[in-house]
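Re: duplicated header lines in exported C-alpha cells

Our pipeline writes sequence and C-alpha cells for each protein into one text file. With two proteins the header for the second block appears twice in some exports. Here is an export where it did not happen, for reference. First protein block:
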Amino acid sequence: MYRIISKKNVLIWSAVFTLLLVAFLTLGYDNVCYASKWCYPYYGLLFYLEMDFFWAPIILVFLGIVWFLDNRIFSSWIRVSVPWVTVSLIISVLTPDAGAGFISTPIKFYVILGLYALYILISFFIILIQSIRIYWLKK
C-alpha cells in the first residue's frame, strides 16, 4: 500500500485539502448557516470538518521538510502518518461534542488539538532520527 503513496501524490492531496480549508476559512459558512435553514443542523459538523482539514497544512509543512531529503526518510514518515491521520480522524468523529456537567467544555476540540500536537512531535522526531541515521551515521 505504501508503494503507491509518493511524494507527488501526498503533495497534491494535501494541497487540495489545504485549499478547501482556506476556502472554508475565507468564505465563512457562519453567515450562510444563519441566513439559510439548510445547513443549520449541520453547523457543528461543518466546524469539526473544518478542524479535520487542518491535517492538510500540517502534512504539507512536513512534506516540505521531507521533500528534499532521502526517500527512506519519507517512507518512514509516511508509514506513521497514514495510520496516525486515519485513526485520528476516526477518534475525532467518535469523540463527544461537549462534556457533561455544570461547565461544558468542548472535549472534541481539545482532543483534536492534542492529536495535532502529538502528530507534530512524533513526525519531527521520526524525521530527525531517520536523518541522523542516514546522513550522520553512515555505515
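Second protein block, exported in the same file:
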Amino acid sequence: MSRLTGPQRASLLLIVGVLSAVGLFLLLFEQVEETREIELSGEARVNDYLAVERMLIALGVSADSTWGMEAMPQEGALLLLDSDPEYRARVAEDVLAWVADGGTAMVASTLGPHPILEGAGFTVPEPWSAPDEADTAAPDGTDEDTTDEDTTAEPPPARPPQMRRHGSGRITMLPDPAQYNNTALVADDAPGVRLWEALTADGIPPHATLVIRGTSPSLLGTLWTTAWPAVISALVLLMAAGLRASRRLGPLLPDPDTDRRSILEHIQATGVFLWRQGHAAMLLDSARQSAGLPPEGKTITDPRQFTAEIHRLQQEWTLADNHRDH
C-alpha cells in the first residue's frame, strides 16, 4: 500500500476536521425560540387601522383603506374609522342617505360633533379620561388622597358596538375606536371578534371600504411621516450645495476683447513670458537663428549677461552682413 503524499494527508485531515465539527454541532446544538418586539412597518405608521383591513382580508372580505371618499361605495360595507369633524359634517348627509337606501355603515365615535351618529339616533358617549388630581382630593380641600395607595384609575371595560336600523340599511356605532387600532388588535383579538360579528350581522359583505382619515394626506406630510431621514438629508445636501456655490459666485468678468493683437505684440508677449519662466537661452538661440547665426546653447541667469549677449549678437550680425555685401 502506497503512502499518502503531503497534499493528500492535508485533504484527509481537512475532511476529518469538517466532519468532526458538524458532529459536535449536531450533538451540542439546542434550538431556542426567542420572541422580539419589532416596530410597526411603514404602512402601519400611516394607517392606524391596517390590522382591521388585514383581518377582513384574511376572513374572506376584500377590503381597502382610503383617505377620504370621492363617492359612496357601490356595494359592501363602509367603515368610517377616523375622521375630522369638518369631514364628518360634509359627508353626513350622503352617508345617512346611502345607509337608508340599504347600505351598511360602521362609524367610530371619535371626538367632536358627530352628525352621522346623531342623525341616526345614537347618543354619542363621551370618551373616557383619567380623573384629575382635584377629583381625588380630600373634602376639606387638602391635598390628602382619600383613596387607597394601591388604587389606580383604570379605564372602564371596552364598550361593544351598538347597531341601529336606519331606513333600509343598518348603521353601527363603534365606541372607543382606539380598541380597533393596530396596537390594540395585536395585543387582544377580542375587539376584532366583536367588530366582525357586528359587520356580518346581516351576512358577510362582498367588500369593505375603510376610511382611515377625513381628508387626503399632503405630499409633504406623507414624506415627513414615512421618510423624514431622507427629507432631512436632502435639505442638508441642498444647503451644502448652496454654500459651495456661493463661494464660487462673484462679480461678472468683462467680455473678452474680440480684436486680435498684432504679430509684434504677440512676439513681445511671448518673449516676456519665456523670460519670466527662465528661458532666456531659448530666446537668445531663436534670435541667433533668425540672424542666420548658429545657436550656442548658453545658460543665461543674469539680465546683464543677456544684454551683453544681445550686443554681441548685433555685432556678429553686422559683421556677417558686411561680409555678404563685399
